[in-house]
Amino acid sequence: MPPAVPPIELQPIGHLRTPYTRMEDTPIQTSRNPDEPGRLVVDERYTAALDGLEGFDHAHLICFLDQAWEADGRGTRPFTGDRLRPVPFLLQHTGQRVGVFATRAPVRPNYLALSLVRVVAVRGNEVDFTGVDLLDGTPVLDIKPFAPHLDVPGYTRESGWLAHIRSGWYSQPDAATNPLVSPGPDGLRGMGLDPGPPPRPPTGRSAPRP
User: What is the pTM of this model?
Assistant: First the structure.
């Protein structure tokens, strides 16, 4: 088995401003509340990181569900038994249980949320969007742009209305036609990462060929 990973500490990049202050009143998915406006306020030190986001119609917000975490004992309750198989909101009338990783239930081991919102405008360190399914003040951990040719399985240019969703710089010919599959050492260096030394060639006798 791989070695145990030590606890990971994450710092929010910003927070949300929405009309909702109670979990029970908050829409369960952005698709069920697509037109309500909200705002993402990013820490000013990350303002430059928003450059280019306005070229996308949609983006994923990766958030920490802090109020669910608070209400659930701040993560002290073990995930065992029925907590591993909650009853999703949409199945409450049947009582059917489903594995938590097959749901978008807010009570989950790391209390993370993934919300797909429509980007309306980017102004300084603020992003106006529509499609609210999160509480006011929810900490945001990251933003990732939505691009149909990356995020929709089986997407083609003939995929109807999906082909008209703006995908920012991903739509530029030099990016859209790039056949790159993995970054390689140079790609990692371009991101400011040290790829480390090349792997050592295997030693000893090679296994006999069948």
Answer: 0.81
